[in-house]
Amino acid sequence: MKIEHIAMYVNNLEEVRDFFVKYLGGTSNAGYHNASTDFRSFFVSFDDGARIEIMNKPQMDDSEKTLNRSGYVHLAFSVGSKEKVDELTERLKQDGYEVISGPRTTGDGYYESCIIGIEGNQIELTI
Question: Looking at the whole model, is its pTM more than 0.70?
């Protein structure tokens, strides 16, 4: 069994799509729009087959995204090497994203950094 895709509601579809394409090498489809409900979405695909569906519809609840909450907390992306973790973390920092940890080796042996990415969502970068 494999996870087919992860989905998340977002406020700005194009901005979020562009984040995944620009920084994480995703490829987006042309998008979908249901005219009767005004639901819109994009699928962003990655080289290994993973996909994220980003969605938007009118009147969404946009609760505060605290770091220590129940439920989904972050998306983790393997970028291939320690050097790439360092480079991408610095690039995101230079582009104004908040780095909340790392780059560092964690107690359980992962080399990673965590940033607050698009719309307050945490993104983890790892080898």
Answer: yes
What are 23's two structure tokens?
């920084």
What is the set of domains in the chain, with CATH numbers?
Answer: 6-56 (3.10.180.10), 74-126 (3.10.180.10)
Yes or no: say if 16 and 7 are a contact pair by the CB < 8 Å rule.
Answer: no
Reference 96, options 112, 113, 83, 115; nearest CA is 115
> What span, in angstroms and rounded, lies between the C-alpha atoms of 26 and 63?
27
Q: How does pLDDT run across 45-88, given as a tens digit for each residue?
A: 999 899 999 999 998 887 877 777 777 789 999 999 999 999 99
C-alpha distances out from residue 2 to 5, 6, 49, 50, Å: 9, 11, 10, 10
